[in-house]
Amino acid sequence: MSTHDSQQVVKVWDPLVRVFHWSLALFFTVAYLTEGDFETVHFYMGYGISALILFRLLWGIIGPKYARFTNFVTGKEKVVSYLKSLLTGKAEHYVGHNPAGGIMVVALLLMLALTCFFGMALIATDNIGPLAGTFVASFNEDLVKELHGICANGTLALVFIHLAGVVVSSLLHRENLIRAMVTGVKVIGAKKSKVETVKGESHV
After folding, report:
1. For 35-60, what is each residue's pLDDT tens digit?
2. How many angstroms separate the CA atoms of 140 and 117, rounded?
3. How many CA atoms lie within 13 A of 177 on its CB side?
4. Which is higher by pLDDT, 29 or 201?
5. Are 60 and 68 in contact (CB under 8 A)?
6. CA Rg, the chain, in Å?
7. Measured distance CA(97)–CA(78) in Å, rounded
8. 6 or 72, greater pLDDT
9. Where are the transmembrane segments (predicted)?
10. Phi and psi (nearest 5°) for 181?
11. Distance CA 34, CA 202 (A)
């Protein structure tokens, strides 16, 4: 952490979290756009997303403070309370993910995992991929295809909600969250920093 006049530059997102975030955004975009047209590219994007999910689950346990699930996954009451506070424009500021952002991370990982699973299950019905030859290959092809599409579209919907949340949070707290995910740091005003320190949101 460094201090410049009335502001503090706080290290929040480590390099691996940032690489994960932008790689996942790229892989999902390519996978979504190539579905049905460029199957090989689509398959490999799916495998890449699966690997990224596994990495994030591990990093959420052993990674640095702000990458850990214990830092941002909260109970339902805290999420609801935070969302209500957004309506008043007086939402508490968090150095890392806020409660709503934390639940969105979990929702996106879960929906992406289901999308990848049903995608692999779909090609397994044609005896292709890592699930070929397993009990999954006996699933109804039409049903699996429909579930794969539902999960992919559900992920896209969550992405749009996530982007809207980023915009709202950036405007409310006067910080550039997109830039923070590129540089790994946040520039926080002195008053906010003092409040966060008192509330236990310690800096890296």
Report:
1. 877 888 999 999 999 999 999 999 99
2. 14
3. 21
4. 29
5. yes
6. 19
7. 13
8. 72
9. 12-32, 44-62, 100-124, 147-172
10. -75, -15
11. 43
Residue type for position 127: N
According to the model, what pLDDT value does residue 198 have?
Answer: 30
CA distance readout (Å), 143 to 43, 44, 147: 19, 22, 6
Query: Can you list the domains of the chain with their CATH numbers?
Result: 2-198 (1.20.950.20)
Q: How far apart are CA 51 and CA 47, in angstroms?
A: 6
pLDDT per residue over 146-174, tens digit each?
999 999 999 999 999 999 989 988 888 88
| Stretch 75-82: mean pLDDT | 88
- Can you give the chain as a three-state secondary structure string? CEEECCEEEEECCCHHHHHHHHHHHHHHHHHHHHCCCCHHHHHHHHHHHHHHHHHHHHHHHHCCHHHCHHHHCCCHHHHHHHHHHHHHCCCCCCCCCCHHHHHHHHHHHHHHHHHHHHHHHHHHCCCCCCCCCCHHHHCCHHHHHHHHHHHHHHHHHHHHHHHHHHHHHHHHHCCCHHHHHHHCEEEEEHHHHHHHHHCCCCCC
